[in-house]
Every structure is written in C-alpha cells, then in structure tokens.
Amino acid sequence: MQTKADSGALRGGIALPDTRYSPFAALWRRLRTNRAALVALVFLTALILAALFAPWLAPHGYHEQFRGAETRPPLSRVSIEAQGGAVSGHREELFLLGTDQNARDTFSRLIYGARVSVTVGVLAALIGLVVGVLIGLASGFYQGWLDALLMRLTDTVFAFPSVLLAVAITAVLDRPSLWVVFLALGAVGWTGLARVVRAQVLGIKTLDYIAAAHALGVSDARILWRHILPNCLGPIVVVVTLSIGGNILGEAGLSFLGLGVQEPYPSWGGMLAEARENYRYAWWLGVFPGLAIVFTVLAFNLLGDGLRDAFDVRTKE
Amino acid sequence: MLSFIARRLLQSIPVFAGIVLICFALLQLSGDPVNLLVSPRASEMERQKKRAQLGLDKPWYVRFSRYFIGDLGKSYRHDRPVRDMILEGAAVTGRLALGAMTVAVALGLCAGLLSANKPRSLVDYASAAASSIGVSIPAFWLAMLLVLVFAVKLQWLPLPRPGIGGLQYFVIPVITLGLIYTSLIARLTRGCLLEVLSQDYIRTASAKGLNRAQVLLGHAFPNALAPVVTVIGTEFAGLLTGAVLTETACALPGLGRLVFQAIMERDHPVIIGGCLFFAVVFVSANLAVDMLYGLMDPRIRPGATANAD
Fold this sequence. Notes:
CATH topology of chain A: MetI-like fold
Order of helices and strands of chain A: HHHHEEHHHHHHHHHH
Strand content of chain B: under 5%
CATH superfamily of chain A: MetI-like
Number of helices of chain B: 14
CATH class of the largest domain in chain B: Mainly Alpha
Radius of gyration of chain B: 24 Å
Helix content of chain B: over 70%
Largest sheet of chain A: 2 strands, antiparallel
Largest sheet of chain B: none
Number of helices of chain A: 14
Number of domains of chain A: 1
CATH class of chain A: Mainly Alpha
Largest interface: A-B, 40 and 49 residues
Order of helices and strands of chain B: HHHHHHHHHHHHHH
CATH superfamily of the largest domain in chain B: MetI-like
Oligomer: heterodimer
Radius of gyration of chain A: 24 Å
Distance between the termini of chain A: 36 Å
Strand order of the largest sheet of chain A: 1-2
Structural class of chain B: mainly alpha
CATH architecture of chain A: Orthogonal Bundle
Shape of chain B: flat
Shape of chain A: elongated
C-alpha cells in the first residue's frame, strides 16, 4: 500500500516533459546537442584515462633526472649518457615540452600531475556534496531555529577564504600534504550547494504530493530521501560538476603556496611554484602547467553549463 | 532603514564570534606557541615568564573576550600591535582590491551590455569565450603570464620585487585580479539583461518610440543591475583569496602575505586578527549590498512593507 503511494507520488513529482525516454536518456539526448559540452566530455575522459594510466603513457618517470639536459626548451633532442649497466654510450631522448631545472621531463610530469588535480577535484567535490546536501535538506525541510543556525554557519564558512583555512590546517597538522587540500577545500566548498539545495527544498515541500506523503504517514527521512532529494538532483549535479573546476583551481592555488602535494611528486600548481624563479627565461616551465589547469577547469565548467542547460528544460520552454 | 541596519549588525555578531572561536580552536590544536618562541633548553621558569608576557597564562575566555572590546593584542614575533600590522597590509590589499574592482566593473558592465545588445553576434561569442576562459584561469598564473609578456619581453613594466614600490608595481596585480572578475560580471550582466529585455515593459518602451540605447540603458540596465551588485558583494571573499595568491605571485606585501606568513611563524594574534578583519570586510560588503539592493529595487526596500501597511 505504502510503496504504491510512494511510486505514484514520485512519478507525479518528476513531471518529465517526454515520457518516451528514461530521465537519463532524455538528459543525454539534450546534452548531445551541446557541442562545447561534448568536446569537454571527450577531453575529460581522455584526461582521466591519462591520469589512470600515467605510468604507461608518460615517456619518462616523474622524478627521472637526465643529467646534462637541464632547462631545455620544448622539442629538444638531447643525447643522454646511458647510466650503469654493461652498455655504455649515448642514446637520444626527445623532450616534447622541454625539461625543468632538475632535468626532468615536463610532459611526463604534466601527465602525473593530472592524477593530483583530478583526484583532488573530484574527492573534494564529493565531500562538498555530502555535507552540502545534508545541511541544505535539514535547513530547508525543518526551517525554524535549525535553519537560522545552519544558515549562519553557512555564512560564517562562506566568509572564510579557503586559502587561509588551508594554511591554518597545515599549521595544525604540522606538515603540508594532500589531506590538507582535501580538508580545506571540502570544509569550505559545501556552502554553495547547501544554499541551492535549501532553496530547492523550500520550493518542493509546498507541493501537493509532499502533503499527500505526510498525510499517508510517511516518515520525514523517507520523504526527504525518496520524494524531495530526487527532484533536487538536477541542480545538485550541476553545482557539483561546476565545483570540481573550482576545486582544481583551489588545489593549484594551494600547491602554488607550497601547501599541497610535496616534491618530487608533481602537481600543476606545484610545478608553477617551482617555476616562479626561472620562468622568466624558461617560459615553457611557466606556460604548460598553467595551460593544463585552464583546459581542465574550462572543460569541467563547460560540462557543468551543458548539464545545466540539459536539466533546465522547463525554464526554457 | 536604520532598524534594518541595526538588525543586520546584530546578526553579524555571531558570525564574528564564530570566526574567532574557529581560529581559537584551530590554534589550540596546533600546539603551544611558547615551544616555538623559547629555546628548547629553556627552563620551566623561563617558559612561564614568556607565557605571562604573552598573556597566555590567562584562561581562554579572558583572551577571547578581549576581541569584543576591539583589542587585537600584540604580535608574538614582531613586537608590534597587531592592529598596526593589519592596517599596513590592508592599505596594500585595499588598493589592489579597489583597483581590480574598478577594472572589473567598468569592463564587465560594458562587455555585458554589448553582448546583450546583440545576442549571438560576433561580439557576444567573443565575450562569452573570453569569460569562460576568465573564470577558469588561476589568478597567479595570469599574473605570471602578464609578467612574462609586459615585464620580461616588452619591458614596459618593472619586474615584481619584494617591498612596496611605486604604483607601477600595482599595474600587473590589478589587471590580473580585475580581468578575472571582469569575466564574472560580464557573464552575469548579460544574463540578467537578457532576462529583463524579454519582459513586457521593454516592448512597451520600444513601442512608444524610444531608440535602442534609451531602452537598453534607461529601462533595462537599472533593473538588471541588482543581481550584479549582489554577486559583486558576495564574491568579496573570493576576491580576497585571489588577492592572497596574486600578492604572492607579484611579491606585494599585502594582508594575504601577512596572514600567510603569520601562520607559517605561528604568530597567533596576527592570524586571528587577520581572519577577523577578513570577516568584517565580508560582512560589511554584504550589508552594503543589501542596502544598495533596496535603493535599486523599491519593491524590496527594507521598511517598504511597513509603509505600505
């Protein structure tokens, strides 16, 4: 009896414009027409694969040093003395994007750096997702003093620049690490989502089918989970996708200040921090890691914009 | 209006108290600052003396309540009042933020107006592409690129160096931060303008014979401005974060540098004072936005309902 009522309310609540397709198929059909979002999707898939298979794709190791090939410009061919072993002599190495002051291959370090950016971007967004959804749901559904308290908390956290929080956490943990970046970005990254979810809940909870669920004696938790949350899914997916780009920018900034992943492991922001002294005469050290950041963040933003358009069918028509 | 301001100011007190409490808790976890300030071989007597000298022998609530009478204390490291250090840094960061905001508002509103005037035109696409890149670019990297082009290659501007120099040292940081916020404002202005332009009273204005410029600037623009002003206000925290990175990339001795260094040196009073200052700026910016909002849109003017009743 109750499950019957549940599924009926659910179907009524989603109000799909076209019932011939499942929600995801309908979403994909709309997203497919957005060329920028598709390009972004392809780029991000390639990037994630590159990050996963970095040891196989990178021509050299991230900390492999080629003595005698320090700070070479892109496309340099350098004759390297073969080290150790019975074989002596020289072999030629190609450095696609040049080498840094420690004679390491920039291109390989960029590929390994993608691991840090993608991991931090996605995991920090997931932390933000859990915290933001919980706070937004509670705030919007119960309102009253709980809402006031949670929204003041949201204001306070929003006022706190994430860089300063990260620096403070570093001071607490006594040494910089990737955990600092997760904690700092996650701890401040949920405010936007909490506000969006709260606004959605405020709108949805006045609808008739929620009143019907209440009248049938459905518990608050079940109403939130089965009837309200699914209808907030669109805005949540959009905000989370867009926040990944923001997190990657945040990670780059923190690494630039020396607070992220530590040497010799590469991160794009860390590579720029290392280049801070010598990019003035070795431009490639300052340019390529920055381009990697911009392309990746841009791709997440374009995908987020595309998803927003795809979800927002009702406001467009 | 006055009661509205008073209520908002009262509401902001818990936010300030919360920030000081968070800072206190974090710093308490980070260990005893005395350990870093005296030599490791110091006797217990010396440590107690140092502790008393810094006021750390008092219970936490006494130290906490000092902040409510506006006493920010003294730096552990530099033997100067925290207030002076913060005001010094704020002068630099303030100049940076103000300059950047001026650039961003001027360029952003113009770009937004041009885009919305002819949607799907070349100007619109160019502006959209530039804004998409602008919101995806790290501030410190843009600063590095500008240094590379204008200071290294073209040599129009001096290379950044530590210590306050003349205004020419502000050019690159101001343009960097300004451009990043330009993209945000341009996007938003375009969106809000297009929404307003689709409304009935715009058609009426065109129908009674006003030209395009009069409709756009006189009728649509003032109504599209309110959300733009809100975002400018709420992005203030982001602007300050961007300022920290830009200051680092351009070697400017601003507030961001000050707090960053204080945390590295475990200079607790400077950390708390700095965070409090950020919070005050943020809350004031929000209050200013709310008041401007009322001035721009009579429908939501605070106190308007009281008059109507």
